[in-house]
Amino acid sequence: MIDLRSDTVTRPSPAMLAAMTSAETGDDVWGDDPTVLRLQARVAEQAGKEAGLFFPSGTQSNLAALMAHCARGDEYIVGQAAHTYKYEGGGAAVLGSIQPQPLENSEDGTISLERVAAAIKPIDDHFARTRLFALENTIGGKVLPAAYVAEATQFAHGRGLATHLDGARVFNAVVDSNQSLMALTDGFDSVSICFSKGLGTPVGSVLVGSKALIGSAHRWRKMLGGGMRQAGVLAAACLYALDHNVARLADDHANAARLAAGLAQIDEVKVASQATNMVFAQFPQADCAPLEAWLKERGILTQMLYASRFVTHLDVSAADIDTFVAAVKGYFKR
Ligand SMILES: *Cc1c(COP(=O)(O)O)cnc(C)c1O
């Protein structure tokens, strides 16, 4: 199957599995797993932060970070389109007793700093205490403008807020913008990075930040059920991904551009945007369900909506993109 629904669908390659089966392990709840320790140290160093912490998922990594920054009754400012706000089951509110203050994202994924300024609550018993400003990079596949990130993080710190980056796909931003991970995470007090997206591991995220913040997140991770034992088998996949699957994200970006260019040739389809490994396109509403079924019969998995998202990854080749585009053309010509 050619699966364009997400970059989470990648399967571990034989070489990645070999790295996993030969991993040196220990009990990571006891801090004894050398492979986990190596991964945490490596990601922290590469991001220019003091410490790292391995999590089973990005959702849990983001949540533990929010809970480390914010206490009960505190508030975090976040984009309406942000994963932490919109796609994590409301965990910050449910499990953290943290009030989200969502603000509209602009087309480029930024949040206007005037709006942020207006949303920061005065210190007054009527209000939640605004503690944190969270951004996401990439967001909807788009790389946040570097100048904006620098301004936004300085602004937040100037107003006494901490800063968190949901960098689930920050390595896509690294490859696309040709900036270092350290440059992209500069200005953030914490950064969560997913290995189970374009980097192609079965599971795993790493949160980085100061020793104090990571110490606090470590306690929340245990409480949230994320303390894992011989997690080195999973961390080994992440180390393998750092060595082998970062530079190749450029192929995914080229394939996404190829997909967008292919769809743009079809009159019935309107390509809304393409950035890094994502393409957003609109299809006539009445065609969505039959087109999805048509593609599935031809071995192509998509989620066809009026505004559809296609995601490229290491299990999708340029030839697969051509197969997909030809199948969409075939549908509209039938
Ligand atoms: C996938 C993702 C996460 C975390 O997802 P998990 O499936 O819990 O690992 C967080 N933020 C963004 C932007 C994501 O795309």
Automatic annotation (TrEMBL):
The lineage, from the top, is: Bacteria, Pseudomonadati, Pseudomonadota, Betaproteobacteria, Burkholderiales
Describe the location of the Aromatic amino acid beta-eliminating lyase/threonine aldolase domain by residue ranges: 3-282
This entry's Gene Ontology molecular function terms read: L-allo-threonine aldolase activity
This protein's source sits in the domain of life called Bacteria
Subunit description:
Homotetramer.
Q: What PANTHER family does UniProt report for this protein, alphabetically? A: L-THREONINE ALDOLASE (PTHR48097:SF9), L-THREONINE ALDOLASE-RELATED (PTHR48097)
Cite the entry's keywords alphabetically.
Lyase, Pyridoxal phosphate
**A Pfam family that the UniProt record links to this protein:** Beta_elim_lyase
- Return the InterPro entries for the record: ArAA_b-elim_lyase/Thr_aldolase, Low_specificity_L-TA-like, PyrdxlP-dep_Trfase, PyrdxlP-dep_Trfase_major, PyrdxlP-dep_Trfase_small
Q: Choose one Gene Ontology CC annotation of this protein and give it.
A: cytosol
Q: What is this protein called?
A: Low specificity L-threonine aldolase
